Amino acid sequence: xxxxxxxxxxxxxxxxxxxxxxxxxxxxxxxxxxxxxxxxxxxxxxxxxxxxxxxxxxxxxxxxxxxxxxxxxxxxxxxxxxxxxxxxxxxxxxxxxxxxxxxxxxxxxxxxxxxxxxxxxxxxxxxxxxxxxxxxxxxxxxxxxxxxxxxxxxxxxxxxxxxxxxxxxxxxxxxxxxxxxxxxxxxxxxxxxxxxxxxxxxxxxxxxxxxxxxx
Length: 215
Ligand SMILES: [Fe+2]
Prior knowledge:
This is Hemerythrin domain-containing protein. It comes from Actinoallomurus acaciae. The chain is mostly helical. The chain has one domain: Four Helix Bundle (Hemerythrin (Met), subunit A) (Up-down Bundle). It is built from seven helices and no strands. It has helices at about 10-30, 35-65, 70-100, 105-135, 140-165, 170-180, 180-200. The longest helix is centred in the first third of the chain and has 32 residues, at about 35-65. It is globular, with a radius of gyration of 18 Å. It starts with 7 loop residues before the first helix and ends in a 16-residue tail after the last helix. About 20% of the residues are buried. It binds fe (ii) ion (FE2). Fe (ii) ion binds near residues 10 and 124.
């Protein structure tokens, strides 16, 4: 159906957040939390999450609110989305401080952060995306993508694109890259991904790839 919104960009972004928290947990368990690469992985994770939530809060939820003004259930859901973002902010702040101090309770903190973020992402995917599918159009969704790109700028895109495809499945990678203009795919291959790999975020293994976590 041509009038269906394709949520690929949202799903691959959410999956990259989940993947980073799995990597963070592995780093904490292995006693690598104080390494430069893990701290750089954390900084990138919080930057990506900040951009993602800011554009949702400033662009997506307000536009959705206009479309569902007379639907209390939908308005309550959108209030939940904002409240869940608000609940994550102090947790992220506190975790950053604990990581900096290499606190003894990092493992428990990762567990809490993962539970809160997972709950939010699932809630958004299970309830907000179907609402978006119902009341928005593919043209609206494109506009949301443009708002995201404007917020990221070229520097942000240079970090975002290789971060998304780091460890992604072949199918998701194909779907994700198909959403990007050809020149962006080319610059990613030639410049952004090589630079991203050199940063070795989260302290990857010798092969340059993180071992996948057992399901
Ligand atoms: Fe999202």
